[in-house]
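// run 5 | inverse folding | seed 20
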């Protein structure tokens, strides 16, 4: 009688820990950003978001949390990618250079041909907020305050270095610059032409307190 050799069977595969995601979270977040940017926080419905992202509601909740959490992540992406010019502006050697980099950066973003919506995500998401979106408004305001504080600090340094006249109110100058930037964004969202926006930038630079 022939002896039988025992063969070792392949080990059983380990069970998967949940179903793998079938979408790119980065692409989905970028799509959500465009929806929020176009419609604001309250104007963007879950159906708008899932349609644009190409995912189901359960997938949205699993990957990003709820709508509010998704917006915060979209706002992080907006600041990192679309507002990179604001960080570059703070590194300019003069106060006028800072202001010019801010305004020309905003102009370039608002007139980009890459298909991004116009206007400012922070402005359109904060202005119409109802009580259910108070946390969104508070986050937008806190982020803006942090950015303005960095600009005040930069202008204070310019004043100490003699780059800005001693009589200049740097807080008022910062508020003035932010009002210009917000006005530029609102006008861009309302259909202003590039020539109109460039005129706003050039006029603002012409009346800047330093050359």
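// decoded
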């Amino acid at each position: 009688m022939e002896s039988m050799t025992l063969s070792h069977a392949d080990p059983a595969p380990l069970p998967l820990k949940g179903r793998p995601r079938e979408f790119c979270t980065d692409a989905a977040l970028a799509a959500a950003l465009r929806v929020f940017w176009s419609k604001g926080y309250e104007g963007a419905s879950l159906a708008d978001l899932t349609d644009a992202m190409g995912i189901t509601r359960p997938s949205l909740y699993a990957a990003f949390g709820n709508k509010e959490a998704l917006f915060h992540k979209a706002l992080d992406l907006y600041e990192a990618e679309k507002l990179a010019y604001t960080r570059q502006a703070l590194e300019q050697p003069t106060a006028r250079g800072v202001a010019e980099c801010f305004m020309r950066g905003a102009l370039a973003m608002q007139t980009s041909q890459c298909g991004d919506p116009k206007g400012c995500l922070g402005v359109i998401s904060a202005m119409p907020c109802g009580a259910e979106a108070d946390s969104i408004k508070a986050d937008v305001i806190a982020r803006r305050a942090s950015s303005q504080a960095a600009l005040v600090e930069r202008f204070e340094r310019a004043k100490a270095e003699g780059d800005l006249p001693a009589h200049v109110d740097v807080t008022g100058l910062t508020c003035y610059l932010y009002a210009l930037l917000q006005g530029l964004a609102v006008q861009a969202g309302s259909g202003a032409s590039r020539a109109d926006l460039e005129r706003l930038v050039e006029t603002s630079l012409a009346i800047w307190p330093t050359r």
